[in-house]
Amino acid sequence: MSKKVLVILGHGLNDSLCGALSAQYAESAAAAGHQVQVLKLGELEFDPILRQGFRQIQPLEADLQQAQAQIAWAEHIALIYPIWWGAAPALLKGFIDRVFLPGFAFKYDENSSFQVKLLAGRSAHLMATMDTPPWYYRWVYRLSVLKQMRKTTLEFCGIKVSKTAVFGPVISADDTQKATWLAQASALAAQI
């Protein structure tokens, strides 16, 4: 069944491994008959700092208004980003802070201790690159940034993460290894 798929490149550079993975994923999803849009955070113009916290909502720049429209349109989201210093890059974190706002991504009900998940009904795939060996990241760091993105960001808003993939170590990867990772991105897109 055809779905509306939004691929979000959370790396600032299009010519990165994350850029290649997002392009491969988008191409494979389109080839499978899905409607695909790609959102490249490095091409957006916005202030990534939530200057007043949630005390005062900062007006959204045009690119962030468009990003919210794309997220609202999507039935499935693929989020592809590097893990730097054990976390998502500042660009992606700033994007989330500015876009996944109360009233758009979630809201609080005064009769409940829990949030209303305004983006419910969407699925997601997470793909992350890193220089740390994935086995080390899994067993020593317990996949901390992937768990954070999955549980306290996406699922908090109602987006159900069905698959995750970690690619690394990138620093020592040759072209054969990168081709294998691109094939894995294609296979993941086939599972939408």
Automatic annotation (TrEMBL):
Q: For this UniProt entry, what's an example GO CC term?
A: cytosol
Q: Which InterPro entries match?
A: Flavodoxin_fold (IPR003680), Flavoprotein-like_sf (IPR029039), NAD(P)H_dehydrogenase_qn (IPR051545)
Keywords recorded for this protein, A-Z:
Oxidoreductase
Single GO MF annotation: NAD(P)H dehydrogenase (quinone) activity
According to its UniProt record, what is one Pfam family this protein matches? Answer: Flavodoxin_2
Q: Which residues form the Flavodoxin-like fold domain?
A: 3-179
Superkingdom to which the source organism belongs:
Bacteria
Q: Which family does it belong to?
A: Belongs to the NAD(P)H dehydrogenase (quinone) family.
PANTHER family on file: NAD P H OXIDOREDUCTASE-RELATED, NAD(P)H DEHYDROGENASE [QUINONE] 1 ISOFORM 1
Q: What is this protein called?
A: NAD(P)H-dependent oxidoreductase
